[in-house]
Amino acid sequence: MLTLCLLLYACTSSPEIQKVSVFSGVTIDKNCGASVVIDNMETFRRFQLDAWLIEFPFELSARHTGSDFRYYEKHTIDTLVTVFQTENIPYVLCFPLDNPQNYPLKNARIAHYLSDVSGILLRTHDYPPIAIVFSGIWMNPAFYREDFLRFVGELKTSFEGFTGDIVFAGFPHELMGDFDWDSPDVIGIRYHEPLSENLDLYYAGLNKEIGCYLLEHDKPGMIVHSNLFGDKKLDLFRGQLSFWPDSVEIKGIALNSLHCEMSLSGKNAFFSLSEDQAFLDFLKDYLN
Predict the structure, then answer these.
(1) Which of 261, 267, 257, 263 is nearest to 280 (CA)?
(2) Quick one: which of 48, 108, 200, 240 is 20 to 30 A from 144 by CA?
(3) How far apart are CA 16 and CA 227, in angstroms?
(4) 3-class DSSP assignment, residue 168
């Protein structure tokens, strides 16, 4: 089926833009709290975005000998859940796990990180997320343990009130390699810098190939990292939403979530969308 799909859509040149939900993404860490969401709620409403995507990043560490989560301490997620519930705003939680120091995966204690994730999720009981995303080292076969799959399975069966999607996300080369397409409900796509200056040609090939994998495994996709940057933000956004096989469902796209700022009001010129008038005009038309 995959080969047939690739052959079929190789002959298709239509760049039709899919109409999907647009999420505002931010990263929450020790230097970034709930204020980045609260202070930007007016911008969120003005653009009529569909949901927030909140990342809680983790890093493997040789010194990580126990969970960092303290159940008796107030956590950022407490405030966020209250705000989202009060405003009746859907949200997605993302848990990227990275290994910047190249710590040996065989020595990592996955239970410590699962405990931290669990601690955050338990705080969302009264207003659960619409999706939970795992990416990074979670997806590495060398780190992919039975206890992680068991944990993910329990989210669907034992996380009371949660009826959303489990998303496994990867960069394109990961999705086309040794990737678990069976366990999640949705496949997350993490776009990196394009490998070609010809964005139409690049996304025409890439999105059709990823789309054929989605069709083969009967899964919808979700763009969890759009990585819009430089002076081609609008072209990147349009390319990521185009060239998909007709029957592929893309459940949403997250505007940049790499930093502690909302990209529609941020000041980081390389990643911010706030001063790109062409992008803002297109987004307003797209969402209305």
Answers:
(1) 263
(2) 240
(3) 21
(4) strand
